[in-house]
């Protein structure tokens, strides 16, 4: 059978491949701890489950949902932006997605033609690059370096790239580094994108995963002309990865274009799931602070262990990840392989986030503090 050539330029999705490695380790009777994928272990709030169940009682819950999402959920997103970020949105500036990954993929054809340039951070969540390639775009990697706190240096982007680029993805709080952006950075990148007429998208999947009592920020707080787009996700904040629900907010022309792609290739999310998301957004902010405390304590404890074992890392304030440097004389694959083989610890090799990250790996703090510490304490001492 003839299969297209397009797929040759992209790898299998790492976390899909990992499932078979995990199954094998389990069937060998090995005790394993999975600190690879960012799939929260925390329990789901009962009110979210209640929303889902109540949704099944509603009329026409089994029908095709509205393509752009339930009005009630869009209004809840609008309220969230108003109360938390003091950003005012209207209904045309919001779209509900089947997880933010769906929107990240679909925004590429919504904005770009074949051959256009998409600027993507490196390292980054791999979907920006793979989706860019799948849609026939060229991707330009802007390097995020530890010495710059993993912020892109906009002056390093060649003029020819800036002039041709149509889309610029950023992701703060950042996966995999944990870096968070400040007001000055957001203002600078907004004016850079305005100057070169580039659609700026912030992937804010981790916007609430920051230290307790800190204020989250949104790109849209600094976007007076509402030119940009921000993606939001219920997955990480509300432990709803399997529900597949997220949203995009911002420029109405881009949202309309995203809806045009979306309505042609898929439909709206199942109504009871949207009802569950409404209840999630209605939860008291105390819920969010409690969740933040848990991740914060895990991060502190894990950093202490890494220090003891002489493993270097970046102390990012955001996300539940720690971005580490592989010990001397190891490649990332060798080190991750050794941790799995000798200690049953699954972590993510750096090259998943970009081909220059051969001396990094990422730890996801998605298990209890005690278990993470017990398992990591067994590993050797490195220099
Ligand atoms: C940076 C980033 N953006 C988006 C997503 C996708 O989230 P969702 O579950 O909303 O599709 C992930 C998932 O890990 C992520 O790490």
CATH class of the largest domain: Alpha Beta
Q: In the residues, how many domains can be counted?
A: 2
- Could you tell me the number of beta strands? 13
Number of helices: 12
Small-molecule binders here are: pyridoxal-5'-phosphate
Low-confidence stretches: none
Keywords: Aminotransferase, Transferase
Pfam families: Aminotran_1_2 (PF00155)
Cofactor: pyridoxal 5'-phosphate
InterPro entries: Aminotransferase_I/II_large, LL-DAP_aminotransferase, NHTrfase_class1_PyrdxlP-BS, PyrdxlP-dep_Trfase, PyrdxlP-dep_Trfase_major, PyrdxlP-dep_Trfase_small
Question: What would you note in describing this structure?
Answer:
With 383 residues, this protein is an alpha/beta fold. The protein folds into two domains: 122 residues, Aspartate Aminotransferase, domain 1, CATH 3.90.1150.10; 238 residues, 3-Layer(aba) Sandwich (Aspartate Aminotransferase, domain 2). A seven-stranded mixed β-sheet has the order 2-8-7-6-5-3-4, with helices on both faces. Helix 3 packs parallel to helix 9. The mean pLDDT is 95. The site of pyridoxal-5'-phosphate has 13 residues, from helix 4. It is an enzyme of class 2 (transferase). It comes from Clostridium tepidiprofundi DSM 19306. Belongs to the class-I pyridoxal-phosphate-dependent aminotransferase family.
